[in-house]
Amino acid sequence: MNSSLPSPSVAVDVRRRTLPLLTTLLTLALGTASAFATDWPTYRHDYSRSGVSPDPLPKSPTEAWSWQSQHPPQPAWQGEAKWDGWNKVYDLKPRQIFDRAFHVVVAANRAYFGSSADDTVRCLDARTGAPLWTFHTEGPVRLAPSVVDGRAYFGSDDGCVYCVDAATGKLTWKTRATPVDRRIPGNGRLISVWPVRTSLVVQDNTIYTTAGMFPAEGVHLVALNAADGSEKWRQIQSDLPAQGYLLASKSRLYVPAGRDNPAVCDLQSGKRVRVVEGAGGTYALLTDDMLVFGPGKTGQLGAVEDGSSDQLATFQGNHMIVTPTRSYLHSDTEITALDRARYLELARERKRLTREQGTLGKKLKALGNKPGTEADRTALQAQLADLGRKLDDATQGMDQCLLWKAPSTWQHCIVLAGDTLVAGGKDEVVGIDATTGKVAWTRKVTGRAYGIAAADGAVFVSTDQGSIHCLRQGATQASN
Amino acid sequence: MNRWITTLAVALALSPVASFAQETGLIGHWEFSPDRTQNSGMRAVSGKEVSFSGGPRVVKDPPPARVELAGRDESIVIASGIDKTLLPATEMTAEAWVRVDKTSQWGGLVGALQDNGEFERGWLLGFVNSNFSLGLATEKAGRMTYLASTKPFETNHWYHVAGTYDGTEMRVFVNGELTATSREQSGPIFYPPAAPFVIGSYKDDDERYPLTGAIHDVRVYRRALKSEEIAAHYNAKKSIFPKPAPAPRFFKPAFGPFVDWTDRRSAVVTWETESAQPTRLTLELPGGTLRQLGDQQSRTSHSVTLDNLEPDLEHHYRLVAPDEDGRPVVSRRYQFDTSFFYQPARLAAPTKPSTPAATAQAIAGLGARDGYSLLFGATDGQLAAELARQISADIVLVEPDAARIPNLRAALTESGAQGMRASVHHIPGAQLPYGDLIANLIVLTGQKPPAVPAAELHRVLRPSGGTFAVVGTDIDLPAYRQWLEGSPLAEAKAGPNPQVAFVFTRGKLPGGGEWGHQYGGPDNSSCSQDELVKGDLQVAWWGDPGPRPMPDRGNRNPAPLSVNGRLFIQGNRILFGLDAYNGSILWNWSAPEVRRANVTRDCSNMAASGDTLYLAHNKFCIAVDGQTGSRARRFEVPRSGANGPRDWSYVAAGRDLLIGSRVKPEGSYLGDDGEWYEEYAPDQVSRVTSDLLFALDPATGKSLWEYTGGAVLNSTITIGDGMIFFIESRNPAAVQSATCRIQNELLTDQHLVCLDQRTGKRLWEKDHDFSSLQFMTYLVYGKNTVVVTGTDRNKHFHTTAFNAPSQKQPSGSGDDIAAAIGGRVLWTESHKEDKGHHSGHLQHPVVIGDVFYSDQRSFNLTTGETLRKDLPERRGCGVMSAGKDAIFFRHHFHGMWDLATDKRSQFMGIRSGCWLSMIPAGGLLLAPETSAGCSCTHSIQTSIGYIPKRR
To answer: What range defines the domain where residue A65 resides?
Structure first.
């Protein structure tokens, strides 16, 4: 038994190690009706934050219901600086924003989301949008809950971790994530010095979360007993904050650190394994063998292989969807589909060549213009030129891994449900055929669509205006 | 590469580009003219159309037709990637008619390149500093050669520039003449896998240097044109270009513009003109759609409301006014961001009459309307909801009884206040979890006092105006009196309204210092005299403003100020007033003509005293209401002896004295190009000087005195013990400078001058050789000693201390006065800078008591005795600030050196910028976000306040 499994009829390991394979199997085995039964129990479906659901979507979903918050989301942080004057880099990407919308999770036909505007977690009937319950905390709830085994788990800026009955919203237990209750003005609200700003991972009857913003105050990484919230272990970081959605594998916990790079910790003890290299950011994705994160300074995702700290490859884009055979790269202006295996093979080759180039370059530099080294210099230059050509070949080969490329104005979010990519833009979402890149349908929403969940054959869209839209097949519209 | 050529040949055969070619080998010809613009781009005369972003202006009047580029975020893209059908393979020519208005280290006219460390590919026709150049890399060389013309160009002049490469030789032509050749490169051009093919910018993955100037046309060929062809191109058009090109004219309002946000979708823009005239505003929405706003009414005060803006995005606008001949003249392109609205959400009026409205009104009438309010004893949520409608504060209902909370929340939810305007905290005990000094308003409404002791409430109450009140008509007065007894709140009196039984307003925090000027006080000591900020600190608050509204970190920007419990922050042409004790943003507005950079060689444009922020803006100094941000009062710079326009420069403010200085417009540095001002170059180290010092009565605006002498170095103006000190150059060339920005060569005949602050009369002066102070000149005062310091071009500090006794003006003149009264050299000291990195040579000194801290050393202020040479290392480009017991600086992150314990500490994750931005004041260490633009991954960018841990 693994308490990570969501409760509804089709069990999908939220770690999603084998999910793409399941996609095919489920589709084949269950047929259309049953295939609309998978949950989206945590942010981006699973703790790999894959954004991939096996559920195929209806061909032409329409709005079934919408829900509108009295006030729009109140993100903790605003945008990045306008530019980097020293390096003359413009259009810097925000690296510490993770809460632009009320991200929805779905389990057992119920939709759940937290609110940074009114400090609550809400549960709606996923089929009708009818409110089922509202739970109040004492601070903004910036991240989506995780729903496991009939319980919803979430944290709040008030510094507490909550467990409520997923059906009724009744408090099961609550615990402060740090030993001390100290509240001060933070991001415009009177909140804990140690707000919970990394979501919760619930796995093997254990809850993993963090509390704290400022390393000088201590940033607590804690494991709690899922049954009652009692503490299993606690590690205190004194160098990095913890902001964004946690990721987890069977043995590792990945802790986003806002503008900085994620830390990799041991799941059993919380001890730091390493901090990966990159350009920072709160978006992260765990694939079978690597951590992809960003958006860095300019909208660039870095990929770091398991066990490594340095980057294997970088991608121009803000988000990525990964299946065993394909990677979908999502940038401000386009969506591209890549032959994943070939691309990674070439990326590894390029990394090797780059290292070799660096080594030869250092040798050449060491030679300088010393008399009598002309022959060595010429030989090294020839080798470098040869390496340059090979690098070009590798780079061109990577270009040829492109399966399709489509222009996009839906830059805010992307998920994959069955064989449909769903992407969010300003005032609309689109369904895109993942095989061809063709837009299959377009639907209006209110605001910029920063959050998308796909479950139960439906799409749940969250916007920066505090709207939640549910799109289903043959729906008749309702709204709160 | 051979494969590329083959590919190219095939592509050429198939490409539509080939069919466009009218001249042999012509790839593209782009002549900028409004007649060719379309959508967000322009058709080519020949070849591929270009796309625009960032709003480049294509104009044709007056001739020549051209694209005007302001050196900001405009871009003109031929292709976003390496498209070999659009790029020459081996032979090439690139040529352009261009006017460069501002030189830069690198500049681009047309090209596609990557020059990132050892990765050097592609080509670029551009310039290097003041010399036109052709940069090009071939596979054979593997590196770029930047072949630069031997003759520098002049800014604001039109030139025809061409670069050719025939496979063996690079050539650069300027105005039809060959000016440079190189044979370093040979063979095919070596292109990067990816690079944008752009006009008007040096742009690769790592860097972007946008052109400030204009381009008439650009041509690119896949062959090397002959000298005669290039000369013919030059001769064919040279007559249409004026010599020199007239400087671009911009409309500049007399006052403003200012943008006041109404919400995230609307704002009001106001500005004034010298005379009554019609003006209008052209609004550029994100995406490029234009809206024309305003009317044709002639007036001096103008106002336009901008509605239906895109939330959370940058918008641009220009003002347009007729010139003397009735022709429209546009202003510079201003920007504002709709995300810079920070005020709390407004609540809808209640659907039925609100029972507690009168009570809420009584509470609101106490005056503490912003920040955080704690409400005790609420019987339902109605009062809190009504209060949230009447004041701006975030209201927290402190409730010990869990059973009552659902009803409270239900009422708050119904009103729309729940969460972001009002919330309920379940606090069952006698101790509050809240940090010290954070609450602007604490209101008790219960009939009986709460279980929380009065002293505990006083702990949380904000100094400098925080208000405590007991409100209600049926309260148990004896019980409250007993509860108040023995606490500082026992001083509470009956309120002005019968509903207010007790009211108490907390005064300033004893021992809390103030930071009202660039370097603390007008003495430039960089010390606030704060006695409280020491020992172990903890976070008091954090939040906006973040990096988005702030200027780039490296521009040596004006320091934040904090007086009377408020914090004033100057962003990138946006001003903020915050509550220093809890970080609440009281007000903010955009002022695109307000900007000052390189204060290392100038002075700040703001000072604060009491409840007023004084802000220099063009010819005015605005007296900004510190609490509301109102700009209702202003003073105009004196006109005495001026033969042209003048701006207000230096500002020092006291209770009854406002001291200013005057410069010529355009004299101040703006830092818009990401300058760091740390190199020894004329455009970085030239001093901004004033031609007039003056004093006003800030209550009446009445002129008290004026002083004219030499060219006064703004960075040296210092005030202490009733005296004003400064260094002035009396070199006539400096005094008569057209710009007020003086190069070192003209800074001769320097004098240290002391004036009486009350009268402006000269008390004494000292002729002294300060010529070794080449990078900068600082002046600080303390204990009747004035210290002048700076570094020479080899980064050696040279410091001289003079006596400056507080005496009445004696009889006599010149050197006699100096000898008898002040200006006697007390000590001198020189040393090579210790730090050796991150602008160590620009460090501003600190004076605490009788110790002078400079570089990594400390000295006795009056004797010069060296006390220490081992000040803690400071890794980073900021400078030091201090209270009485601690020095603050950037050491990787926010850093602190406690003088009593000699212990250095740092606050991981948060760093300050490259000038003075951490200030101890009012018992807190205040550190607005100033690391904006830092490419590093330090984890948090936020404004923050620190407070000593409770002992």
So the answer is: 19-333+408-479
How many CA atoms does the CB half-sphere of B44 hold within 13 Å?
24
Residue B570 covered by a domain: yes
Q: Which amino acid is at B183?
A: R
Range of the domain at B877: 537-948
Q: Tell me, what CATH number does B322's domain have?
A: 2.60.40.10
Q: How many CB atoms lie within 10 A of CB B327?
A: 10
Total domains in the fold of chain A = 2
- pLDDT tens-place string over residues B417-458: 999 999 999 999 999 999 999 999 999 999 999 999 999 999
Q: Phi then psi for B941, rounded to 5 degrees?
A: -120, 110
Quickly state the pLDDT bin for B8 (edges 50, 70, 90): very low
In order of A180, A229, A266, A267, B723, the CA distances from A233 in angstroms are 17, 11, 11, 10, 63
pLDDT tens for residues B22-76? 588 999 999 999 888 887 789 999 999 999 887 788 888 888 999 999 887 788 9
In terms of domains, do A247 and A395 share one? no
Beta-carbon contacts of residue B840 (< 8 Å; ≥ 6 apart):
B795, B833, B834, B855
The helix-helix angle for A340-367 and A374-399 (nearest 10°) equals 160
Plot region of A356 (φ>0 → left; ψ -120 to 50 → alpha; else → beta): alpha
Cα–Cα dist B831/B799, whole Å: 9
Contact between residue B570 and residue B606 where contact means Cβ atoms under 8 Å apart: yes
Residue from B395, B940, B943, B947 whose CB has the most chain A CBs within 10 Å, to mutate? B940
**Rounded CA separation B700/B633 (Å):** 10
| CA distances in angstroms from B440 to B362, B395, B437, B455, listed in the order given | 16, 10, 8, 16
Rounded to an integer, what distance in angstroms lies between the CA atom of residue B142 and that of residue A241?
A: 43
**How far is A81 from chain B, CA to nearest CA, in Å?**
4
Contacts of A80 in chain B (CB under 8 A): 547-548, 941
Residues B160 and B24 in one domain: yes
ipTM computed for the complex: 0.90
Question: Rounded to a whole number, what is the distance in Å from the CA of A385 to chain B's nearest CA?
Answer: 7
For residue range A75-101, list pLDDT tens digits in order.
Answer: 999 989 989 988 878 889 999 999 999
- Put simply, the answer to whether A183 touches B423 (Cβ < 8 Å) is no
Mutate to test the interface with A, among B308, B423, B581 (most CBs of A within 10 A): B423
Interface check for A233 against chain B (CB to CB < 8 A): the answer is no
Residues of A in contact with B312 (CB under 8 A): 79, 464
| Partner residue facing B544 (CB), from A78, A190, A241 | A78
Question: Using an 8 Å Cβ cutoff, are B94 and B220 in contact?
Answer: yes
